[in-house]
Every structure is written in C-alpha cells, then in structure tokens.
Amino acid sequence: QVRVVESGGGSVQSGGSLRLSCAASGGIRSIESMGWYRQAPAKQRELVASIPTVGSPDYANSVKGRFTISRGSVPNRVYLQMNSLTPEDTAVYYCNAHRVLTNRDLRDYWGQGAQVTVSP
C-alpha cells in the first residue's frame, strides 16, 4: 500500500525559513512527478511547486525565487526549502505523488499535510 508522509513545517517569523520533506513508499514502480500544494483557511488548494522524475521543476509565481523543490538521493523523496517566508505563506502544505504506478493501479496519492505558520 502506497504511503506519502510529510515532515517538517512549524512556526516561524516573517523572513524566516523552513524545510519540508516528503517520502513516498509501498510497492511503487514509478512516479511521474511529485509536488507540494498548500491550502490556507477559506481558500482553495493551490500548487506551490512540482518536480517531474525527468525534467525541470515548476513553481507558482508567488513563490518563485523564495522556494526551492528538490529530489532526494533516495528515490521517491522530495524536499521544499522555503525562504523569506511571509504571513501569506501560512497554510497546510500537502505533498502529492502524481501518477504513481503500482502493480494494482495508476493514481495520485496525498500526504496528510504539514502546518506552516508565519507570524508578522
């Protein structure tokens, strides 16, 4: 059974940095891409950054130049380095594993979410 587990997050003052980690495991044959989404209170979930297994990362305009998504040396692991955080970055951050191929099916998986809170 596929699991997507996030770690990191927390609280920081404006201008600070945080790092999120995500690991997907459990009978995975391949993953097309992994990414980070976020959802602030009363707002829709939005894509923050994604990185394909082969290719270059993509970022939301609001985080370009501040956030960096990267792959781990271990397969199916990604990180999100968040710098120059502002209160507008406050949200629950979700890791997404896109088009995960197992012996049973091909589908997306989500992590449980990690709270990021940025105070003024």
Describe what you observe in this structure.
The mean pLDDT is 96. The protein is elongated, with a radius of gyration of 14 Å. It has 120 residues and is an all-beta fold. 0% of the residues lie in helices and 58% in strands. Strands 2, 4, 5, 6, 9, 10 and 11 form a seven-stranded mixed beta sheet that branches. A four-stranded antiparallel beta sheet has the order 1-3-8-7, with no helix packed on it. It contains no helices and eleven strands.
Biggest β-sheet: count, sense, barrel? 7 strands, mixed
How many distinct helices? 0
* Rg estimate, integer Å: 14 Å
Residue windows where pLDDT falls under 50 for at least 5 positions: none
**C-alpha termini separation:** 41 Å
Q: How would the global form be characterised?
A: elongated
Mean pLDDT: 96
The percent range for strand residues is over 45%
SSE sequence, one letter per element: EEEEEEEEEEE
How would you name the oligomeric state of the polypeptide chains in this document? single chain
Number of E-state strands: 11
Label the structural class.
mainly beta
Helix percent reads under 10%
Brief characterization of the structure:
The protein is mostly beta strands. 0% of the residues lie in helices and 58% in strands.
Name the descriptors.
7-stranded mixed β-sheet, 120 residues, single chain, 58% strand, 4-stranded antiparallel β-sheet
